[in-house]
Structure formats: C-alpha cells, structure tokens
Amino acid sequence: MIKQAIVTVIFVFALVASVPPANAALVGGSPVGPVKHYYSYSDFNTGDVVIWVTTPPATCPGGFWVRMTDPGAKNVVAQLLTAVSAQIPLIIWGYDDQLWTGSATATCRLYLVDYVL
C-alpha cells in the first residue's frame, strides 16, 4: 500500500512538473508559410536569431526568435536555414508571453518548428 502511494505521489509530481506555468501561452500550430526574413545577430543577447514568416499568429506579428543558449537552438537554426534555402513552408509554435527585447513589435520565442511537406 505504501509503495503504491509513493508511486502515485511521484507520478503526480512528474505530471505537475511537466505542465507549463499558467501564464505561458503557446501559440501557432497552423502553417505560417515560408520564412520572409532571417536575421542572425552576432552580439545581441546571446547571438539571437529572428525570423519573419508570411502569416504569423496574431499575437506574434514580429515573427519568432531563437535564444541561442537553449539546448535545441542549433538544431532549430539548422532546420530554419534549410527551410529558408528550399523555401519550405513551416508550422511554428511559440510563446507569446516571452517576447524578444530587440523589437517594439511582438516577436515570440520559438518553441517548435515543423516542415509542411
């Protein structure tokens, strides 16, 4: 009985820990089209990458940004460069509560990028 209670507590803790904060707002998920502009900054923040897309979500009119210190940043940038080169339409998810400080236009932190094939 105690073992089952411990397993239940661990499961509930893991579940709660995996839920994003209540104020985190994940937006996107529909095709945003190909990348219109790709910016790579050498000395702004951590070398941020910013992209503008054809049809951004309403809350992200400035597009999306990648924080280069994130664990998957290099993979995301490689995927974005491939999409730019081949003009592959994208589906992008981002956080509209984590805006880039380098623009007055709301530019959302990129969470996930997917090719529309």
What keywords describe this structure?
six-stranded mixed beta sheet, OB fold (Dihydrolipoamide Acetyltransferase, E2P), 2 helices, 26% helix, 117 residues, alpha+beta
Structure description:
It is a single chain. By secondary structure, this protein is α+β, with helices and mostly antiparallel strands. It has one domain: OB fold (Dihydrolipoamide Acetyltransferase, E2P). Helix content is 26%, strand content 34%. The protein is built from 2 helices and 6 strands. A 6-stranded mixed sheet has the order 1-5-6-4-3-2. A hairpin with an 8-residue loop joins strand 2 and strand 3. It is globular. The N terminus is likely disordered.
SSE order and pairing:
Layout: H1 2-18, E1 26-33, E2 35-40, E3 49-53, E4 64-66, H2 73-86, E5 90-99, E6 108-115
Parallel strand pairs: 4-6
Antiparallel strand pairs: 1-5, 2-3, 3-4, 5-6
The gist of it:
This protein has 117 residues and is an alpha+beta fold. The protein is built from 2 helices and 6 strands; from the N terminus they run H-E-E-E-E-H-E-E. 23% of the residues are buried.
